[in-house]
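[audit] Reproducing an earlier prediction to check determinism. Same input, same settings, fresh worker. If the tokens differ from the archived copy the diff job will pick it up downstream; this log only records the rerun itself.
[audit] input (337 residues):
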Amino acid sequence: RNMDKKKNYIFIGLILTVILISVCIQISESPDDSKIEYSIPEPPDLHGPEPIYLPEKLESRCTGRTIAIIFDTDSARFENCTVTVRTSGVKITRSEFINSRIFFESASDIVFADNIVRDYPIYEKPAISVYDSEEIVFRHNCIKNNSIGVSVAESQNITFENNIFDNNYQHNAIAMYKSSGEVSGNLFKYNFPHGILVHFIPKYGAVNIHDNIFFMNVEDAINFEDWANAKDESRIYNNIITKTAWAGINIEYNSWNANILIENNYISESGYTIEKFPNPSEWSNGWKHGIKLEDCSGIIVKNNTILDNNENGIDIRNCKNVTLQKNTVTRLSLIHI
């Protein structure tokens, strides 16, 4: 559909400002069936990362063994390897990792850029593991066809920018545990169950997720779990999230006093038919909401555009201290509380 000139007829009440304090309350439906014409906001102007092209000739550094990287590495191939990085101040660039695992442990000030990481199939094992590290930058990589893309644990200031996460098919493209960082400018497509899973707050800092494109991820595109008593505000903003089989954004599982701002996101067609996904027999549809909030508090949801989702635009269950402000919501139930 051409969004440049698109307008939609929306019943009065679709653009709402609702503040929930202390308890969740039921919003009664307005009996007024009159129609007012509203312009649908334009989606953010995002274009996604450029493809990654490697040099024609790559130096074979490792086949079927364990290797430690302690110096800058460029234009290398690692196949069936275990790669460890336990140092600081190195760059790993323009290299290919095939059916290999990469461990960043107690590392700092690392740049991992313009690489391809693919085809690591071991169940519940990430292709890239970051532990007890800080100031790691993943920039413009293609991370595809792995069991898990990147796992980050107990690490701070981890940056993901302009990467492509494609078909990481068993347990998330990015999983962050007790870690802080920035996720921006990435493309997430065909990942299961989530594009990004964030759970348990870090020692300090927050997780900011913005200016990303999420397309046909199997369950929730962005999922925060057990994010309780956060001192610093985490922000989810300016993302385009389309055709997720479950919810676009989900905050759940005892995320009390989560201190999360969800702002200026464009979420459409959540609950997309699972039969249209790759490998549909392995997956199934769940909830089909634009934004889902459950067992959480301290959430602000403002200025989001939530269109054509197959269940509720915003679904709120067992929550308190949730603020809804100036969101544009269309189709089916608008807000369920």
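[audit] rerun output stored. Observation attached for the diff report: The CA atoms of residues 119 and 333 lie 41 Å apart.
[audit] end
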